[in-house]
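Entry type: protein chain
Record version: 2
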Amino acid sequence: MQLHYYPLYSKFIEICCLPELLIDEETLLSVKQKDILLSNLPIKTDDVLECLQPLKSDIKKFYFKNFPKIALHLFNVYVPETVQTFTEGLNILCALSSEQIIEGLAYLFHEGKIKKQNTIEDVYRLITQAADALSDSDKWKLTNILYQPKEMIDQLCDLLLKIETIYDPFYQQMQEERTNFGSSLTTAEALINQISIFDNQLLNHDTKKDTCTVCVLSPFFAYFLFNGRDTLSNKPAILLIGTRMVELLNTANEQLDDDTFHELAKILGDATRYKVMLALSKGTKTKDIAETLKMTSAAVSYHTNKLASNLLLIFQNDEHSQEQPIKYLVNKDILRALIQKLETDFDLNE
């Protein structure tokens, strides 16, 4: 499978994900991650976050766990690759009709249930059902977008433009590293061969597309995420990866030190995430997990990506499944290492 590096979409994703670093404690880097991701950086991440502080109250107005996916999904569906600048892409989003925004949201939260014959009332109902699974605060934010789509997207694009203006000088200083890394990823095999724990089935999952869009993030993003082909836009699958994730992934299985152990224990300590991991390991489909756990498909994807980025789950191709061609295997080596550390620390074998 051919990999296609898309610089503009990469930048849009990075701008959308910056709020996570500012207000979501789950994105804080562990000591090991800092050692790898922040070494010899031309910028200081604390300086970036300090510059964004004046926008923190505006960011909180929009941000919730799946906030980045809303803007990214609309961008992926409606902005063609011929667009050359960040501002031009935002202008296209601002020109969307309320119906287009709502349809994009519906596919994001209820992919598989949206049919061409659905009325706009059906779509509103499905998104409202998705909102019911959120916290009161997040439900309020999503409902605002639902009932004021044009106004909220216009305000969101205005905020993203402000973030981009502040962040662009930092972003440009890391351009060479992103470009070099992105240019090196020409095929799925080229990436797979760099990551020791994956077999050669990774990303070779989509029989209807022979390319995968690669979005490369600056080095301090500990992201290694995969989203399958978008059924609304029929665009290729997307691989999202930070420039230093290959090094980080390859060190994950080398030694389970205290820092890594505590980080993994914290991730598994989230009861909902543990249930998602258990269900995925048994081959349960994302939409079925969402219904069982009374949450949105986007929320399931959030937990899945968190687990995969920390190598607790490993992608594997399932060529016999058209509906969910990627399945997830539990990384048993890491789980065994976790258990072994507990046995050693507490003398459980005595």
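Comment: DSSP finds 18 helices and six strands in the chain.
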